[in-house]
Design brief:
It contains 17 helices and 18 strands. The chain is an alpha/beta fold. The N and C termini lie far apart (about 130 Å). It is a single-pass membrane protein.
Length: about 550
Amino acid sequence: MEFHIDCTQRNLTEIPPLPIPIDGRPVLRFSNNHLKDLPSNAKEIPGYNQLQALDVAANEITSLGIQQLPQRLQHLSIRFNNITDLGKKVVEFLSKHVAIHRFGNKWFADCDDKVLLEYTYSIINFKGKKDPEINNYLRERSERNRFSENPWSCFWETRFLISFMGKRESMKYIAPLDYQDFRGPCPDVCSCLLTYYPTEFIVDCSGEGLSEIPPLPTPKDRPTTLLFQNNNLCVLPNDSMPGYANVGRLFLANNRLTELDNLPRNISYLDIRNNRIAVINRKTLDIFEKRSKSSDLKLFLSGNPWACTCEEKDFLGFVKGGGPRIGDVTNITCGDTGNLLIETDESSVCPSGFVHYVTLTVSFMLMILTINLMIYFKQPLLIWFYEHGVCLSLAARRELDERKKFDAFLSFTHKDEDLIEEFVERLENGPQKFQLCFYLRDWLLGVSIPECISQSVKDSRRIIILMTNHFLKSTWGRLEFRLSLHATSQDRCKRLIVVLYPEVENFDDLDSELRTYMVLNTYLKRDDPNFWNKLIYAMPHSVQGEQP
């Protein structure tokens, strides 16, 4: 049987004297008042030291001493007060005798409280402890402690503990966020932490292998710090992502970013080291410049393959003039050369206008000169291409009279018969294997000479005139020349090839018609060093390198 004394919601600031029951278990309900301290000595207030259950939830209590606890206490509720710590003697007393309800307080306990380690609902404080110390403690005692059902206050100093608890057991630390006026739940794989000096809300999602930033809770009156390093992020979200627009400090080192768009509008700290960013667009650069003028912007940019080109000269100038706002300016390098960006001169990546125009002018002049040279040396070039089998579609000509019997009719006088041997050797027995026609071998006996000349001209695709002094003085030679000239005058391609020997000094022995032809048309000089190449090129061309 219990004897209940109900003093709830009466705006009381201290516990009054209490009746002492003759029989029954005395219980005092003193919640929702303005009590700042329990009685300094449990024995001074009548009936207080006999209490077996004490409920002082939702008051303003800031501390709890061993002398303030009733000796017979078995149940204590101190929920939603301002208690942050418990002394060793209090913990020893409570752990042995009392069931305690303590939700709603911002607890800080001490790892050195050995008796606390065996307490079923341990309230552990890692304030001031370093991560290795916390890590060792948890590894040694993780199986002997329960952490859930405690209203953990998520401070930056306890980030390791929060992460550990989130993986160890189903942790319910959303309540403190709601209690601090935050909107939205903390992402499942992240830890949400608070700092007060300075006031800051931290969402730690680092090292979780995430490829995108999840929706974030939004604090009421403080910026968000997002720790997202060592993930697989490729693209930043837009401002419509819940909580993203409130981010002021953004840690994105060691991700896979290739561009930097959609930065939060109030960004004051950005770490993008060791990503894959080569350029920063004009919009983002404007944000950097604007924020650096209106606030203390801090940037870390090294470890990216920055493009040191003329198109990125604005970024180059921003980095070189960044001063202390870029924390790793001495480590930022150009992606293509590996040179330090601050040591890269703009003149080396952006030539001056004068140099640009001079280069353009020289290039234009070289182009004009090249065109002129190609026009001037067109024939030698085509001859060389044809000789070496290069660009035959450009150098070779398609023949219009491929069905003719001979490739060339060789016209000469009987006094120059000794010249024929080299033509036969070069043209008929050479690589091209031309078929020649000449009177010593191919004219039929008994046929008139004019008829033979006419038929040979008709059956040949080319007529080669060996013009020597003997030829000029030969009646039959001049006749062959005239017949050949008349026969080829209507052809679309030039069939007549005149080979002029060195001993010929003038054309006085020719009549006016033939003399005019020699004056107005080109011919081959036998003493030309490139004679045979020119002659072969003037002969009928094979199609795609095939033999004629």
